[in-house]
């Protein structure tokens, strides 16, 4: 597998090596030992979540306060999505920067999102299913939500028409509001 940093510190795209034969294809989606060896990341899964979305569904930008923090490995297991990560860590050299990656079931490509980096996606097909392997279990009241349509972030969702978005995400604070309210983690503890 190939593990490549995205330009946002600690955030990686993981490309599996496909082993095709007459029956189909096999690949290792993630190996914690390879992530640790290649990137110095110690990732120990504690919970696995799935979301299933209609085409043009926009989810995010989501993160978790530190503590408890939450790193995640995001993989599209059915369909296609436009994945966007945003650096929410105050003091990071890439604070507010984003990275766009297309994830699809056929490639098996995954995004490793470290603690303090926000994540969201736009489903490009109906019945898009996303698997989130996360480093901590759900703790109510620790979620950090940033409005994915924040004009200052100007994220390239490129949605044809109006995206389907939850009330929670549509009314989430803008990045500047979250920063002013002290909701965001510091880079040095993320």
TrEMBL record:
Q: Which key words tag this protein in UniProt? A: Isomerase
The protein's matches in Pfam families, at most eight in alphabetical order, are given as: dTDP_sugar_isom
Tagged with keyword Plastid:
no
Q: Which InterPro entries match?
A: RmlC-like, RmlC-like_jellyroll, RmlC_Cupin_sf
Q: Hey, which family's this protein in?
A: Belongs to the dTDP-4-dehydrorhamnose 3,5-epimerase family.
PANTHER family found in the cross-reference section: DTDP-6-DEOXY-D-GLUCOSE-3,5 EPIMERASE, THYMIDINE DIPHOSPHO-4-KETO-RHAMNOSE 3,5-EPIMERASE
- What is the name of this protein? dTDP-4-dehydrorhamnose 3,5-epimerase family protein
